[in-house]
Recover the amino acids of this structure.
C-alpha cells in the first residue's frame, strides 16, 4: 500500500453558505414542484380511469339487466348478449388453458435452467419482437395457418391458438421476471437443506413468485378480453346463433362447449355493431357490452389476486 | 511492507490440531477426523480464490476460519457442502473428505451431502412460511410427512436451537419473517438441525445481529458442539477466541488468491501464533 495524501478530517474553515442561501431555496422549489407534478399526474390518471368507468356504468345502468346478460340477441328489441358473453369467457378459458402452463414452463426454463447466453438472449429478443407485432398481423397469420391451411374455418380453437401465439411471449417473459425476482438467498437456503433443484423450484421459487405470476396472468387475460383484431380473422365475427348448453358434443359446429365452432366475443361484437350495426338499439347494446366487459375484467382481476393469495398459502404450507 | 518480502512462498502447513478438551480425551481423539481437505484450490474462471489449503477438522469441535475480507474463508467453507457448485465458473481442485469419503467425487449426491453437512448463512434467511413449516422444510423434502414424528422433530430442533420457549405458542400462525433478527438466525439453525446433519457450516452467522443475539448464538454453538462438528467463518476475532477449539487463519497473497497461513488450537493462535502474519492480524496491525 502506498501512502496517499488524505483530506484532513477536521471541518473546513472556509466560509459556509448561509442557511437561507439561494441554492437551497432553488432546490426546495424544485422539490415542491416535483411533488405537485407527481401528485397531479397521479390524480389525472385516476380521474381518467374513473371517468371511463363512471361513463359506462351510467350508460349501462339503463341497459344492463339480468335479461340483457342472459338472453339472445334480437333484431327488433334490445335483446341480450348471452352468446357473446359466453364466448368471451370460453375464449379466455381456452386461451389460458394453453398459455398459462406453457408460459409458466417457459418462464421456469428461462429463469432457472437456461442461464444467460447467446441463445437465451435471442429467445428474449424474439419474445419482445413477437409481443410488439401488431395484433392484426397475428390475426392474418392465424387466418392463413389455422383457418385456411388447416381447413378449420373460423373456430374458437383457431382464435385461442392465435391469441396464445400473441400472448405466450408476454406470459413467458413476465413469468421469467417474477421467478428471477425471488432472492437467490431463498434458493441457496433450500438447496443447502438438501432439497433438489426441482423441489426448490416447486416449494420455494414458484410459491414466492405467485404475486408476479398472477400479474402475468392478469395482463395476458386482459389482452384476451380486449382483443378484437386477432379474433376477427380467426374466431369469426358473425352474430352467434342460439346456444343449446345441453349439447356437449365437443366436435359439433353448434355446441357452445365445442372449440370447433365460430366464437364471436364481446370485443368483436362491439366492433361489429359499431361498424356495421343498424338496429335501433345499437348504441345501448354497445354501451352495455362495454360496461359488461369492464365488469368482467374487474371481477377476473380481483378473482385472480384472491386465488393467488390462496395458492401461496397452500403451496408454502404442507 | 509487502508481506511477500518476508514470505516469498505462501506458507502452508498441516498442523495436527488438538481441541482444548480434557487431556486424556484429546489423547484418544487425535486420530479422529471428521473432515479433511487436501490441497484444495478454488477458482472462479481464471481467478484463483483459494490456493492449496490442507487441514483437518475433528468431530465434535468448532473450527473457526478467520482472516481479512477476500482471503477466501467463505469460499473455502462452501466447498464442504459443495455450494460452490451453484456458482457458474467456479471450480474446485483437491480432495475434501467427509468421514474419509471424497465429497468432490462426481458420484457423490450433493443432496445427500447437504443433508449431512448443513449450512447457516450470514443473513438470516428463513422462508416466508410459518415457523413450523420453516423447520419442517428439510424433513418434508426427504419425504417425512408423518405428523406425529414431524411435530416431535420440530419441537426438539427448536429446543436445541434455544428458540422453543419463544415461539411454541404460535408455531403455525407466525411467519418466520415476523421474528427478530436473532430469533430468525436461531430458526435457521433449528431448520438445519431438523435435517439431522453431522456437520454445521456457519458463514458469519452473527455478523448481522446485535450483541445480545450474538452472545446467544455463541452460547448455542458451544452447546451444539457436544453433538455436531461445526465450522464457522467469522470476522469477529473475539468470537473466534470465545467459541472455537481450533482456529485457521487465512490471508491473501499478492496475486489476491487466499491461502491458509496457519491452523492450530485457538488458545495458541491467539497467544503464541507461529507466523508473523497471524500475529499482525490478530493484534490489529493488518486487515
Amino acid at each position: 500500500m502506498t501512502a496517499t495524501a488524505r483530506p484532513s478530517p477536521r471541518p473546513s474553515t472556509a466560509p459556509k453558505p448561509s442557511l437561507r442561501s439561494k441554492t437551497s431555496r432553488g432546490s426546495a422549489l424544485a422539490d415542491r414542484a416535483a411533488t405537485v407534478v407527481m401528485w397531479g399526474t397521479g390524480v389525472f390518471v385516476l380521474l381518467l380511469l374513473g371517468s371511463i368507468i363512471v361513463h359506462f356504468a351510467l350508460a349501462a345502468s339503463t341497459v344492463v339487466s339480468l335479461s340483457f346478460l342472459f338472453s339472445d340477441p334480437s333484431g327488433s328489441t334490445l335483446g341480450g348478449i348471452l352468446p357473446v358473453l359466453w364466448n368471451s369467457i370460453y375464449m379466455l378459458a381456452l386461451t389460458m388453458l394453453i398459455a398459462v402452463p406453457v408460459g409458466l414452463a417457459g418462464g421456469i426454463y428461462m429463469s432457472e435452467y437456461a442461464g444467460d447466453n447467446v441463445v437465451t438472449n435471442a429467445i428474449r429478443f424474439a419474445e419482445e419482437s413477437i409481443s410488439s407485432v401488431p395484433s392484426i398481423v397475428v390475426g392474418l397469420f392465424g387466418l392463413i395457418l389455422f383457418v385456411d391451411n388447416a381447413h378449420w374455418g373460423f373456430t374458437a380453437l383457431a382464435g385461442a391458438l392465435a391469441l396464445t401465439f400473441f400472448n405466450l411471449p408476454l406470459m413467458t417473459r413476465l413469468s421469467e421476471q417474477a421467478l428471477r425476482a425471488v432472492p437467490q438467498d431463498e434458493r441457496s437456503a433450500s438447496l443447502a437443506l438438501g432439497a433438489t433443484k426441482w423441489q426448490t423450484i416447486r416449494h420455494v421459487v414458484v410459491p414466492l413468485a405467485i404475486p408476479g405470476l398472477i400479474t402475468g396472468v392478469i395482463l395476458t387475460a386482459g389482452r384476451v378480453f380486449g382483443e378484437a383484431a386477432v379474433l376477427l380473422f380467426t374466431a369469426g365475427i358473425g352474430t352467434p346463433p342460439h346456444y343449446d348448453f345441453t349439447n356437449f358434443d365437443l366436435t359439433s359446429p353448434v355446441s357452445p362447449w365445442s372449440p370447433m365452432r365460430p366464437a364471436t366475443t364481446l370485443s368483436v361484437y362491439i366492433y361489429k355493431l359499431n361498424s356495421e350495426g343498424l338496429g335501433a338499439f345499437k348504441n345501448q347494446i354497445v354501451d352495455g357490452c362495454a360496461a359488461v366487459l369492464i365488469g368482467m375484467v374487474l371481477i377476473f382481476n380481483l378473482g385472480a389476486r384472491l386465488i393467488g393469495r390462496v395458492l401461496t398459502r397452500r403451496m408454502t404450507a404442507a | 511492507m509487502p508481506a511477500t518480502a518476508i514470505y516469498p512462498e505462501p506458507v502452508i502447513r498441516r498442523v495436527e490440531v488438538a481441541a482444548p478438551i480434557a487431556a486424556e480425551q484429546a489423547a484418544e481423539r487425535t486420530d479422529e477426523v471428521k473432515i479433511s481437505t487436501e490441497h484444495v484450490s478454488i477458482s472462479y474462471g481464471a481467478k484463483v480464490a483459494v490456493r492449496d489449503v490442507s487441514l483437518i477438522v475433528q468431530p465434535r469441535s468448532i473450527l473457526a476460519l478467520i482472516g481479512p475480507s477476500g482471503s477466501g474463508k467463505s469460499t473455502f467453507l462452501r466447498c464442504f457442502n459443495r455450494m460452490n457448485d451453484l456458482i457458474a465458473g467456479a471450480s474446485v481442485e483437491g480432495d475434501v473428505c467427509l468421514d474419509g469419503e471424497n465429497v468432490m467425487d462426481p458420484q457423490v449426491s450433493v443432496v445427500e451431502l447437504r443433508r449431512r453437512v448443513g449450512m447457516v448463512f450470514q443473513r438470516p434467511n428463513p422462508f416466508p412460511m410459518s415457523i413450523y413449516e420453516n423447520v419442517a422444510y428439510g424433513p418434508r423434502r426427504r419425504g417425512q410427512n408423518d405428523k406425529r414424528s414431524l411435530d416431535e422433530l420440530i419441537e426438539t430442533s427448536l429446543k436445541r436451537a434455544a428458540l422453543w420457549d419463544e415461539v411454541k405458542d404460535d408455531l403455525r400462525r407466525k411467519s418466520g419473517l415476523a421474528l427478530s433478527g436473532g430469533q430468525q438466525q436461531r430458526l435457521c439453525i433449528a431448520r438445519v438441525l431438523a435435517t439431522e446433519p453431522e456437520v454445521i457450516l456457519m458463514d458469519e452467522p452473527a455478523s448481522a445481529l446485535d450483541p445480545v443475539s450474538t452472545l446467544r448464538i455463541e452460547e448455542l454453538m458451544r452447546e451444539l458442539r457436544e453433538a455436531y462438528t461445526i465450522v464457522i467463518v467469522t470476522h469477529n476475532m473475539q468470537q473466534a477466541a470465545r467459541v472455537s477449539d481450533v482456529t485457521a487463519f487465512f490471508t491473501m497473497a499478492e496475486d489476491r488468491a487466499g491461502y491458509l497461513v496457519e491452523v492450530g488450537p485457538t488458545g495458541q493462535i491467539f497467544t503464541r501464533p507461529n507466523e508473523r502474519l497471524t500475529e499482525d492480524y490478530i493484534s490489529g496491525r493488518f486487515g
Q: What stands out?
A: The radius of gyration of chain B is 19 Å.
